[in-house]
Write a structure and sequence with these properties.
heterodimer; A: mainly alpha; about 0% strand; elongated; B: alpha/beta; 6-stranded mixed β-sheet; 4-stranded antiparallel β-sheet; about 35% helix
Chain lengths: ~220, ~325
């Protein structure tokens, strides 16, 4: 170690096993659970809003209100109900995904052009077939687009969860900051890992998008 | 399935709530099997409304529509629609499906085996003037004219006895439009179908139709007849005005030199093949200031003479 002004690669090597590695795994877990639940919930809500148009506004308002609450405040608000647990963190993270995913999913399901829907009806597709074969496939670009934003923002917000729970890439940063003379290597390396994780996830989703919608790729 | 079907409108009326004029007012129309029938008229005449009633996209208040004697309400709407080809101006191809998948839509709904669908797709692509390899392309890779060819192939896929076309060529450029009109005419001769075709363009109606139904504001049938009869004997002033002042010239365009009695020669004018339209023959005489044209067959043998002063009598 050579003071705290420069980056120290040795520290990263020594503490990968006991600090950074586990924090990265926890971070991936926190994000994956939030995205999985957020996706399922958003998809259900979007289906309801698509089916019953009057539901769209209330659903939008509620998720927007959740989004306006600062993340730390939201974590603390939930503590009386769910305690200092992973559940608390996940509820907050899921809440933030809704505001991104629901409007994207609804817009996606509505993106089928009127003439395409008329042709589908005129050819004798049932309402269910129109949904499964036309509306849903045409919603895929918007669905993946929403997921990209949700995944990246969840990875970012999950670092803040460390104020509540000793988990994730935020925790090493949190610990270092508590020190009167913060150890910068710890902050930099954990932060860089969070950024790298976000970039890798985004790249994976771009790949998924290309695989799922060959029709939008070729022009 | 493949035989053309007769379509009958039996006193069909439709009113939209809050509007005084009817969308369709007591329409009775008999369209014999295999007819190329044009619904034409100004907007507000109810032509598209009438078309969309046949596949039950628009319900009507009273009356009945029968296809081959059977009321269209006799079976579920989706089943009825799978037996009727449907082509619209905006085409409405599925952007996420290849051309082949688009064409195979109704056959898939009907549960055809894959092999049969593939063979049918190739057959249809050829019929509408596309390549078999186009089956793998996406609609976004095609031109407007090619897309409407795919739209037509998709409508014909399950070999329906009836084809509904709602201003199918309205959005195409004049050259593509003319080409597709010609090919549709040819196609109608090749495949036995009853075609109901909506347009607001009188020229298109006269060029394409065996029968023309002219609808006026308020959904009233003004005249229903062959193009020749409508041009020759317009039912009233509305029809006269709608088909235009140059009715006689338009009628000349409907006949060829082979359709009229010729005079014995010799003639002094240009030599024209017998399949030339009377309109073009007259134009030729006006252009070269001749009294007549000499009509010849494909081998170049003289068949007789057509004189300018006989043009009126030919109508």
């Amino acid at each position: 170690m050579q003071g705290d002004h420069t980056f120290c690669p040795d520290w990263v090597r020594q503490h990968w096993g006991d600090t950074l590695g586990p924090a990265l795994v926890q971070h991936i877990e926190l994000t994956a659970i939030a995205i999985a639940i957020g996706f399922a919930l958003s998809f259900t809500l979007a289906l309801l809003a698509h089916r019953f148009r009057w539901l769209e506004q209330p659903i939008g308002v509620i998720s927007a209100v959740i989004y306006t609450i600062p993340s730390i405040a939201l974590f603390l608000l939930l503590v009386p109900f769910t305690g200092i647990t992973r559940t608390t963190v996940e509820i907050a993270l899921v809440g933030y995904t809704l505001v991104i995913l629901v409007p994207n999913f609804v817009a996606g399901l509505r993106s089928a052009p009127a003439d395409v829907l008329e042709a589908a009806r005129g050819m004798g597709l049932t309402g269910r077939q129109i949904f499964m074969r036309v509306e849903l496939p045409l919603a895929v670009p918007a669905i993946v687009g929403g997921l990209r934003i949700a995944v990246v923002s969840t990875i970012t917000i999950a670092t803040i969860a460390a104020f509540l729970l000793p988990q994730g890439l935020g925790y090493p940063i949190f610990l270092a900051l508590k020190d009167p003379t913060p150890f910068k290597t710890e902050i930099y390396s954990a932060g860089a890992l969070a950024v790298a994780l976000a970039l890798v996830c985004d790249a994976l989703l771009v790949g998924l998008r290309r695989a799922l919608i060959p029709w939008a790729r070729q022009t | 399935m493949s035989e053309a079907a007769e379509i009958i409108f039996d006193h069909v009326t439709k009113r939209y709530a809050g509007r005084e004029a009817a969308a369709l007012d007591d329409l009775t129309l008999e369209i014999p099997a295999g007819t190329f029938c044009i619904l034409v008229g100004p907007s507000g005449g109810g032509k598209t409304t009438a078309l969309k009633m046949i596949n039950r996209l628009i319900p009507f208040d009273s009356g009945e529509i029968r296809i081959d004697g059977r009321s269209i309400d006799a079976l579920p709407a989706v089943e009825l629609r799978r037996g009727i080809g449907y082509v619209i101006q905006q085409i409405g191809l599925f952007p996420h499906m290849t051309v082949g998948e688009n064409i195979g839509t109704v056959p898939r709904l009907l549960g055809w085996p894959k092999q049969k669908i593939r063979a049918r797709t190739v057959e249809l692509l050829e019929l509408v003037g596309l390549e078999a390899s186009d089956a793998r392309r996406y609609p976004s890779q095609l031109s407007g004219g090619q897309r409407q060819r795919v739209g037509l192939a998709r409508a014909l896929a399950a070999d329906p006895p009836v084809l509904l076309m709602d201003e199918p060529f309205g959005a195409l450029d004049p050259i593509t439009r003319l080409r597709l009109q010609t090919e549709l005419r040819r196609l109608h001769r090749e495949v036995e179908k009853t075609i109901i075709f909506v347009t607001h363009d009188v020229d298109e109606a006269i060029t394409l139709g065996d029968r023309i139904a002219i609808l006026r504001q308020g959904g009233v049938l003004a005249q229903y007849d062959t193009p020749d009869a409508i041009l020759g004997h317009p039912a009233d002033d509305f029809v006269k005005e709608f088909v235009g002042e140059d009715r006689a010239l338009r009628r000349l365009a409907l006949r060829t030199l082979a359709d009229v009695p010729l005079q014995p020669g010799p003639g002094s004018g240009a030599r024209l093949p017998a399949h030339t339209s009377l309109r073009n023959a007259v134009s030729q005489m006006l252009e070269t200031n001749d009294e007549d044209v000499v009509v010849v067959d494909d081998a170049g043998n003289e068949l007789g003479v057509f004189r300018l002063r006989d043009a009126g009598a030919a109508l």
